[in-house]
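Supplementary Text 2. Reproducibility record for the structural model of the 479-residue chain.

All settings were left at their defaults, and a single model was retained for analysis rather than an ensemble. We include the record here because the model underlies the residue-level annotations in Supplementary Table 4.
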Amino acid sequence: MLQLSNTLSRKKEPLTLQKPGEVSLYVCGSTVYDHCHVGHARSAIIFDVIRNYLEYRGLTVRYVKNYTDVDDKIIARAEKEGRQWQDVSDEFIAAYERDMKRLGVGHPTVSPKATEHIPEMINMIEGLISKNMAYAVDGDVYFSVNAFAGYGRLSRRNLEDLEAGARVEVDSRKKNPGDFALWKNSKPGEPTWKSPWGMGRPGWHIECSAMAMQHLGKTIDLHGGGEDLIFPHHENEIAQSEAFTGQPFATSWLHHSFVTIDQEKMSKSLGNFFTIDEIFKKSAQFPEPVVGEVLRFYLLSTHYRSPIDFSNEGLKVAKSGLDHFYVLFQKIEEISDDVGEKPDETLEKFRQDFEAAMDDDFNTARAIGVLQELRAAANQCLKQGDLEKACLTARLLKKFGALLGVFRVSPQDWRYQPWALALEKTDGIDTQTIQSLIIEREAARQNKDWAKSDTIRDRLAEAGVIIEDRPDGTTRVKR
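Retained model, structure tokens:
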């Protein structure tokens, strides 16, 4: 039975569905004012895998992931660059979709834009005002947190403890400092829509509630996002949605942990992030599908509820791990034409182990361990000359890998050279050049051209790059 960690209950619980055989999944998407970073990639990949596995289990998944295409940050960037806000959002929606394709992330069932759902938002706000759950002040509308009895149950915060903070606007017109904006009176030059309270635009929180209910109904099965959204965004979604409908907004809440750099959360505000586009550009020695798989494999190697520290060493280990799989696939490809499709009961344990890992709160780290066991079993079959069993084992391996979104590259197109330390620059020599020199030196060593090998080593050393020759090849070491 599939069990998942529900942030609302703080317990691991069975998956509960509104309709048998159908799953409604809503995930808070990107605010499109800049390129996506690796933290966004983790979120996209996690929920892509969750959707894949639910479908593997025979469920029909309606997956909605939105675009926040009107927001303070979008407006600020447009003003700074002297552009229209729509041009900014359109540019970064296109960039996001390009990045998702590079990462092998499938399209959601629906990708709604906030600006396409203004009437639904206004309808919700009117309903909340009529229920005395919200109030209008000078063209703005605020949700009254005191009026909603359950406020704080997702984040485990008490109203008495909530004070005006970094993400709560201090406004003397509010009845409570924690009251949040449902509708904002537009300033000159900002995007604006007609409403009963004057020209204005929606607040951030109401956007997701309106889009989720429009496409999935009043109560949804799974609602997901990063743990930084628990408060205030998801807490506010629950309050306004349940105050409006009188029904539970979401049965289960899934929250993934952060991607960190040196144990600090990766974020644009801290400036310690790598964009997906940057990683692909700096890893240009590999085809894009290879880079995409390395990133997926790396980010899935840690359970989604645990933080993962992003590093070149981690990517290097992920690339090396994938190399071993592709070496096996290359061997299997040469003999697989002679083996037909047939069941093999001896492989049943691997299927059970893989499903047990994924049924246990989508534990992709354990699932990857099962893939490693399958690879070892296939190689043992090859060693023993049991080619048929090797092929059947490798096919099961590929089937499970597909659920994680890996093994999509042909063995012929896979690049087996070590992962370059693509995210650093060293004393004026970029990482692509470093990797090219390492490959060139390895070829010189194989040709016993020791003079050339030494010359390249010296050049790298002058640039501060220390390399080490090991039985499995040359690698760069940190000083």
